[in-house]
Design goal:
Layout lengths: L15 E2 L2 E2 H23 L4 H26 L21 H18 L4 H8 L2 H16 L13 E2 L14 E2 L2 H22 L6 H18 L8 E2 L2 E2 H23 L24 H31 L1
Antiparallel strand pairs: 1-2, 3-4, 5-6
Helix pairs in contact: 1-2, 1-5, 2-3, 5-6, 6-7, 7-8
Length: 315
């Protein structure tokens, strides 16, 4: 028997606004927030904000498609008798790991074609991704999905009987795991922004830290969830994913820090190539060298003119 909570969070009785699903609107708002933050951060580094928009045009659709593919692949039993339902993306069901993988892959292709610096761009988008995820998780609240096991804690979430797992039909309040993950992602976003200002990591590894942070948070949240999921050796697929991805990210981060300590890098290593004259495109060290060369040339030229004047006076 499950005891009722002394206090609880009510679930909304609607999940649409006019013809629009709130879940889809939350995904769209998350994308807009992420693109806006990335563009602002890239511009502050001397880059062109249009670079971010060009990347987003390809990365966002690829990410959505990848997220749906991951969800269907890891929960294929739900759709084995309803493959049309696998296409109904507005009703929920986006696997974030697949979205990140496909989105980054598409973005990487654009970056290589446009010959942009990979490391600094990865760092620019790193805090934007958990921000988008946190906003997107609000859609789960309106869909009454992605919640955890029953709980009597004051912040337990009320779930309508139609949305409860069969084994918890008599329970009324559940862990709001989508909220836990959303708050974790907001904290991760703030941490990444703070570390980026302090230049504590070599270029590209802020993104690696994001992957590690997301894997740790997902491991924790996934262990609380009660919804149906595919299992491997009795363990949820996303828990396996979190362990494997987190371990790989940790190794990459440690190896990168060992090979390239942040303290040994010049400030220019974090900057994007700037548009403008050829002089503007040079790194600070190169500009200093050119200025010194011009100064030496001017001094030599002045000395030559002075010698010529003296020769004329003598003659």
């Amino acid at each position: 028997m499950h005891h009722a909570a002394l206090a609880s969070i009510p679930s909304p009785s609607f999940n649409t606004v006019g013809p629009f699903h709130i879940y889809g609107l939350c995904i769209a708002l998350g994308v807009l927030a992420a693109v806006s933050l990335s563009a602002s951060r890239w511009e502050k580094r001397g880059g062109d904000p249009d670079d971010i928009y060009s990347i987003a045009i390809w990365a966002v659709p690829a990410g959505v498609i990848g997220a749906r593919i991951y969800h269907v692949a890891t929960d294929w039993k739900t759709y084995q008798h309803d493959w049309v339902g696998a296409l109904k993306i507005t009703q929920g069901g986006l696997g974030i790991p697949g979205g990140i993988f496909f989105g980054v892959l598409a973005g990487y292709a654009v970056v290589k074609v446009r010959k942009l610096p990979v490391g600094p761009l990865l760092d620019v988008v790193a805090p934007a991704l958990p921000l988008a995820q946190a906003i997107g998780r609000v859609g789960n609240y309106f869909n009454q999905e992605v919640f955890g096991r029953p709980t009597t804690l004051p912040w337990g979430l009320e779930i309508d009987p139609i949305h409860r797992p069969p084994q918890y039909e008599t329970a009324s309040t559940f862990h709001p795991t989508f909220l836990y993950e959303g708050l974790w992602n907001l904290a991760l976003c703030a941490l990444l922004l703070r570390l980026d200002r302090k230049r504590k990591l070599p270029p590209g590894h802020l993104f690696t830290l994001y992957v590690l942070g997301y894997a740790v948070g997902r491991f924790w949240v996934e262990g609380l969830r009660s919804d149906h999921a595919s299992l491997i050796l009795g363990i949820r697929v996303n828990i396996w994913m979190s362990v494997i991805v987190g371990a790989v990210a940790l190794v990459v981060l440690l190896v990168g820090l060992k090979r390239t300590p942040a303290a040994s890098l010049p400030e220019s290593a974090w900057l994007a190539p700037t548009s403008g004259t050829a002089d503007d495109d040079l790194q600070p060290e190169a500009r200093d060298h050119d200025v010194a060369s011009e100064t030496e040339h001017d001094v030599a030229e002045d000395a030559s003119v002075e010698l010529d004047d003296r020769s004329e006076e003598t003659s």
